């Protein structure tokens, strides 16, 4: 939503309606909260400065400042030094099962969210010694290296760095769509995987890509996926935003207890 549309929406909500009760700053805060909850103001959206919004709505600057402060205290807005006031980039937490192998795209679609990918880098070259060992490849067998930012409804959630042998994929595949869909289409669908989770903090580069603060918590997930015949088809390192995901597992008591 651009500035003009925001002003129009706020004006249409009757901030000065005499039938409404409560101070003006509360009404403004409620109107902004409504726009956020309705999805009209997306996470990360920049809001007008206090003076600009006050003049546009014919309100006192103190009224706007107090409304902004209330919304910052509740977590709906955030202030970025030198940049202004933004709709908070914090997201609704999601639970992800540790026992089900699925692609990011399939998982987001199952939640009714729109998945997307932004390619950060893409190259075809030879594997490192560690990758050769993990993937069971000779040192001269080419691999696709695909680094992508994964988004849901336009919100950045994870950085994926995948390494896949070209023989399973084709060097013209792998991009903005699901990598697992591409593997399945080529007849090499992963059926099982081993994942390792580690709690980490984000370096400045990764934090900037995910639109969070440097040092923000994240989950590093290393995954090795296999085909039905046990050949390794994918090695991926992913950084998931710590404020967005809870990974859960169901445990059963063994018969020996």
Automatic annotation (TrEMBL):
Residues 22-90 form the HTH gntR-type domain. Pfam families: GntR (PF00392), UTRA (PF07702). GO terms for biological process: negative regulation of DNA-templated transcription. SUPFAM superfamilies: Chorismate lyase-like, Winged helix' DNA-binding domain. It comes from the Bacteria. This is GntR family transcriptional regulator. Signal peptide: none annotated. CDD domains: WHTH_GntR (cd07377). GO terms for molecular function: DNA binding; DNA-binding transcription factor activity. The keyword Repressor does not apply. Keywords: DNA-binding, Transcription, Transcription regulation.
């Amino acid at each position: 939503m651009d500035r003009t549309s925001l002003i129009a929406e706020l004006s249409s909500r009757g901030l000065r309606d005499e039938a409404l009760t409560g101070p003006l700053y509360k009404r403004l805060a409620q109107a902004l909260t409504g726009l956020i909850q309705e999805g009209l103001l997306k996470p990360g959206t920049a809001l007008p400065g206090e003076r600009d919004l006050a003049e546009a709505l014919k309100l006192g600057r103190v009224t706007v400042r107090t409304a902004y402060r209330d919304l910052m205290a509740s977590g709906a807005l955030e202030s970025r030094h030198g940049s202004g006031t933004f709709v908070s980039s914090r997201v609704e937490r999601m639970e992800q099962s540790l026992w089900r192998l699925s692609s990011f795209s399939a998982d987001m679609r199952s939640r009714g969210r729109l998945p997307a990918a932004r390619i950060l880098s893409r190259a075809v070259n030879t594997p490192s010694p560690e990758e050769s060992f993990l993937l069971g490849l000779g040192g001269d067998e080419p691999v696709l290296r695909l680094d992508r930012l994964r988004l849901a409804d336009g919100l950045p959630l994870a950085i994926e760095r995948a390494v896949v042998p070209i023989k399973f994929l084709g060097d013209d595949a792998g991009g903005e769509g699901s990598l697992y869909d591409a593997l399945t289409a080529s007849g090499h669908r992963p059926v099982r995987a081993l994942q390792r989770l580690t709690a980490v903090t984000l370096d400045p580069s990764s934090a900037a890509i995910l639109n969070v603060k440097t040092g923000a918590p994240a989950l590093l997930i290393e995954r090795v996926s296999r085909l039905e015949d046990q050949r390794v088809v994918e090695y991926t390192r992913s950084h998931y935003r710590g404020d967005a995901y809870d990974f859960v597992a169901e445990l059963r008591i063994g018969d020996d207890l």
